[in-house]
């Protein structure tokens, strides 16, 4: 379940009035009286059609957009995991971008390991989110009244 954007994010969106695009390729549509809708950019595609630096910029833009659009609920554990999934996917995308160019065996091995490890961690985080869909109870409950 996606919750409305927090106030600070709405303020950032409002600051981009006159434009439907934020840095990183996140598109925002505005309807009067409604919360803005943030749409993810297209998924990252590793292709030699672009130079390496542009592929890295594209991967970062998709990652940043995914982190901004993560479904937050105010629970630090949940919100951390929700934001780390697109962060890890960004690492995968950057590793794929490198694999198109590098011939260095050590870096190829490192990039392939990043892909495998981050995919496994994404699966673990998705499973955790499935088990913890709502905010955890307050860690500092109000003291009980005694009369």
Task: Describe the fold and architecture.
By secondary structure, the chain is mostly helical. The chain is built from 4 helices and 2 strands. It is flat. The N and C termini lie far apart (41 Å). Mean pLDDT is 76; it is low at 1-31.
The computed structural class is mainly alpha
What is the tally of beta strands? 2
* Oligomer status: single chain
Unreliable stretches, pLDDT < 50, 5 or more residues?
1-31
- Helices and strands, in order, run as HEEHHH
> How many helices in DSSP terms?
4
**Biggest beta-sheet profile:** 2 strands, antiparallel
Work out the strand percent.
Answer: under 5%
Q: Estimate the mean pLDDT confidence.
A: 76
Q: Give the overall shape.
A: flat
Rg of Cα set: 19 Å
The N- to C-terminal Cα distance equals: 41 Å
How much helix, percentage-wise, in residues?
A: 40-55%
Strand order in the largest sheet: 1-2
